[in-house]
Structure formats: structure tokens, C-alpha cells
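C-alpha cells for Transcriptional regulator, LysR family. Go.
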Amino acid sequence: MAAIDLHIRQITHFLAIVEEGSFGKAAQRVHLTQPALSKSIRQLEERLQARLIDRTPQGVTPTGFGLAFMDHARAIRTEISHAVAQLREMQGLRTGSVSVGVGPSVASGVLPYVMARIVSAHPEITVNVTEGLSDILAKGLLCGELDFVIGARLDFESSAEISNEPLYVDRCGIVARAGHPILNGPIPSISELAKRSWILTRRPETLRTKFDDIFRRHELDPPSPSAQTNSISFMRDAIAETDLLSFLPQIMVLRERMAGRLTILEHPDCYWERTVFFSHRKRRTLSPLSRHFAKTVRAVIAELGI
């Protein structure tokens, strides 16, 4: 297949039109006249031999070809931005940014400790954090919006493009307030735990599913929770102020445990372990900032004894 001569400015012009939704706003954004911008897009379409933009009374919209090209164009823009940032850093400049995607347990668990280290040592670095579910984070990683992801293993159709490196084992177990009556006696059986009052994450969240599975393996119905929520901060406060029990990753309540508000009831049967991964695109060279961030994560994990 013959090589196609594309110019970065044409890709920039195309993305401006798509993201602004009109030629007028896009022209202002890239500091061109509308006729000059139209000419640039027309040349891009001629080189690609495909129509990328449709004009409508409501504005402009990408065609099917335009939508397909858009993801690649954004990835190209991101790669160029990373390349420039890396070159500047290699030249001794200390400014820069890193974009990381994290799962909920990482966001409220280990990440605050990492951020404290990064901000203290490098106050000029900007860290862009996106919290979300694995499928959303994988999409952001593959299109170049995220430099890497810390969370569950990213196993999808495009997982061949992703490198998953184990970081640490996240143990999930029973969380109770300090001084909870359940801590004074013998370790309760699974059947006794089924009768307790709980605050849990909602179904079909993975953590809730794994919790329910523990009881089903013992041929018991899972407890019907007194409260269920997707708010981790509310859950931690509710556990600390009541006799409700919960089932959470231990790292998510580390600060509360250190402050003496919450504690972990170690139970031989009521727990679940999962590996947290550092995931990045195989075909992208990690920037020095990304490598530094990953190194800091590993150092913090080692110090916390995870």
C-alpha cells in the first residue's frame, strides 16, 4: 500500500472541527480563516480518499470514516504531546504531566500516599487522575488519553496491545469499627456472619459478587444488607459510627485503621484476594514522568507493607 503524506496541522484542524462542532469555532481555535480551514480539511480528505466531515444545519458531524479516523487522530496528537514533553524533560525542564487511570480501591487506598510523595518531591508536575471501571479505563489507555492504569487486569479484545504487570495483592475482608462487640468473642462462623447487619456495595459490583459467593459456597443465602451504596467515603463513616459490618479491600481503610477508627476482622473463610496491575500500552514508550510515577507507586507499596 502506498504511503499517504499527512501533515500534523491537518490532523489538528480535523480534531478542532470535530471537537468544536463548527468550522467557525474551529477556525478561531487554530487561528485560521474559515476558507483556509476548509481547504486544509479538503486536502486531508483527498489524501485519505474518504469524506470525513458532513455539514448539517445544526453544525458539522464526523462521517463513519471520520469517526474511525478520529480515535487514531487523537492518539497521534497524544503521542506527539508525549514526545515533546519527553524531549523537554530530557533537556532539563521539570514541568510536565502524567495521566493515570485507577480503580476505586486504588483511588481511595494507595493513590493518596503516592500523590503526597509526588507533590512533595515534584510540585511542578501535574497528575491527571481518572477513576473508573476497567472497560472505560482500557478505552482511555488504548486511545492515548491515559498513560497507564492501576487496577484490575485489563483483559479485553484489544488486550494483546496492553502489558499487565502485577503490582500487589489486594486483600478484601471484614471491616468493623474499633471496639465492635464482634471483636471480643471467638471468630464467628459464616452462618453467624449471615445474621449480622451489613453495609455493602451494590450488585453487580465485583466486590459484592465475591462477598455473596462466600456464603453461597457454604450453602447459605448472602446477607441482605441494612444499607448499600457506591460511596466509599459514606461507607467508611457509617462503619465507624455504627455496628454495621462491611466487606472492603484492606487498603481502602488503611488511614482509618492507622487513626484507630476501623479495624479488620481476620477470618479464615470470609475474604477475597485479587492482584492489582500496572497496565500500559505495549507499543508506547513510557515517558520519564510515567516511569517515575510507577517507581513511586512501587516504593509506597513496599513501605506500606502491601
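The domain at 1-93 is CATH 1.10.10.10 (Arc Repressor Mutant, subunit A).
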